[in-house]
Design brief:
The chain is of the alpha/beta class. It is 39% helix and 14% strand. The protein binds pyridoxal-5'-phosphate and zinc ion (ZN).
Length: 446
């Protein structure tokens, strides 16, 4: 039954694309370093990650030959490039990598600050983990406080360029709150589909940004299908990263930034939390592009970090078999993905990097939240701290040597999930307003 639904949705979405007749104009960007958007994109086509077929750069979502498994990869003209001198002139946000983004001059770009997040050195953290050097990239500093903003700005820009009057996605978490915020920044109506069991706190950000929230009486898969069908039926722009190949193009800019900022200092490892797999694949794509452009002399290895209770991609990495969907059980809701859709891109990236996967328990994630707060002053949501938990474990297991250096990608801010933060943190001390008792307290605690 659900198989039939899937195919119907796919057919409808293809039909609606043909009906709308929207295609991207292929062309070259002038490399003038002015930071202004040129008229055309450098996208030359889409390549299916399953069968390798090529398609023109239209707004088709998945490979018609492979169905929903056929996730597409955006390809650029060989002439699409920028130099360090070009970048030096440009604003500090993700649009600085315009030549390698699927946007045009006529696209209206969301005004919120996305990208160019801080990359801190964390020497005390490195000492605690017995690693030579650690950098922390704080993605919680994006406009709506998560990495997902990098994808949402591309989605919203493309929605506006295609003339869509509404944008939609199915999510309970950061993809939804990010889309709601970025859409609000340009006045584009957003419809968010959430499963019935969506936790209330997650809805606050989405609702505050004025999105229409549809609570679907069903599980996440049914919610996702309904969103697909609604997009096809109403002609809404679909921000689901699992089927929209352009969103990962925003995510890859984190890789661009790391390479631009560190250059020859690029470390041995990058630890990234993995749920659906799109984030780690995006970071890898950005790094590869920067390697090709000569910004970095070599590529780092990827450490994919999954929760023990949601480890489909890690299990597939070690077994060599396709992931088997299973219920996800972890407090790190942003990586609680039971049926990942971008696993091929993720596995390909980690293998190509000669990297590996590691799985962490919720206890290890809670500990990592504390350590990150104390040793680097970064407040992370559980999925954001999972990367550090994985790095700590990899160091303990000897997978990462004491002479090696690493980046931890902190994907979401701790204020997104205060309940978990309170679990990770110590309790306050309660005392009467009396100095003598305060003195006694500190004498005792010495
Ligand atoms: C979405 C998300 C991830 C994982 O990204 P995937 O593309 O699903 O692998 C990690 N951390 C946070 C905070 C997220 O929101
Ligand atoms: Zn295909």
């Amino acid at each position: 039954m659900s198989f039939i639904l899937r195919n119907t949705a796919l057919l409808r979405s293809i039909t609606s694309v043909i009906v709308r007749g929207f295609t991207v104009i292929i062309g070259k960007l002038p490399l003038n370093g002015s930071g202004k958007m040129s008229m055309m994109t450098n996208v030359i086509g889409l390549e299916c990650v399953v069968c390798g077929r090529h398609y023109p750069p239209s707004d088709i979502w998945t490979c018609p030959n492979c169905g929903q498994a056929g996730i597409l990869d955006v390809r650029y003209a060989a002439t699409a490039r920028f130099t360090a001198a070009d970048l030096a002139e440009r604003p500090h946000d993700l649009w600085r990598y315009q030549e390698l983004l699927p946007i045009t001059a006529t696209s209206q770009l969301p005004p919120l600050q996305v990208g160019w997040t801080p990359l801190y050195q964390a020497p005390r953290l490195a000492r605690e983990l017995r690693i030579k050097q650690i950098w922390v990239k704080d993605e919680g500093r994006n406009a709506t406080a998560s990495f997902k903003d990098r994808a949402s700005v591309i989605g919203v820009a493309r929605a506006l360029a295609s003339g869509a009057k509404t944008i939609a996605c199915a999510s309970t978490g950061n993809a939804a709150s990010s889309l709601a915020g970025i859409a609000a920044s340009v006045g584009l109506p957003a419809v968010i589909f959430v499963p019935e069991h969506a936790p209330d706190p997650k809805l606050a950000q989405i609702l505050l940004f004025g999105a229409t929230v549809i609570r679907v009486q069903g599980n996440y898969d049914q919610t996702w299908e309904l969103c697909q069908e609604a997009c096809a039926h109403f002609g809404w722009y679909n921000r689901n990263a699992a089927v929209n190949p352009y969103l990962i193009e925003g995510k890859k800019t984190a890789g661009h930034e790391i390479a631009e900022k560190l250059g020859p200092e690029i470390p041995d490892w990058i630890a990234v939390a993995v749920g659906d797999g799109c984030t780690i694949a995006g970071v890898w794509k950005g790094l590869c592009e920067m390697r090709q452009l000569g910004f970095i002399p070599r590529l780092p290895r990827l450490l994919g970090v999954q929760a023990e209770g949601a480890n489909a991609i890690a299990a597939a990495f070690f077994s060599g078999k396709a992931p088997t969907p299973a219920p996800a059980a972890t407090m790190a809701d942003s990586i609680a993905v039971g049926a990942p859709r971008n696993w091929r891109k993720a596995l390909r990236a980690v293998s190509a990097s000669v990297g590996t996967f590691i799985c962490v328990s919720d206890e290890e994630i809670l500990l990592a939240m504390r350590v990150l707060g104390r040793q680097a002053a970064i407040f992370a949501e559980p999925a954001g701290a999972a990367a550090l938990a994985g790095l700590a474990k990899a160091s303990k297991l000897g997978l990462i040597g004491t002479h090696e250096q690493a980046i931890v990608l902190v994907t979401g801010n701790g204020l997104k999930d205060v309940k978990s933060a309170m679990r990770a943190a110590d309790k306050p001390f309660t005392l009467p307003p009396d100095l003598r008792q305060l003195i006694t307290f500190f004498e005792k605690s010495r």
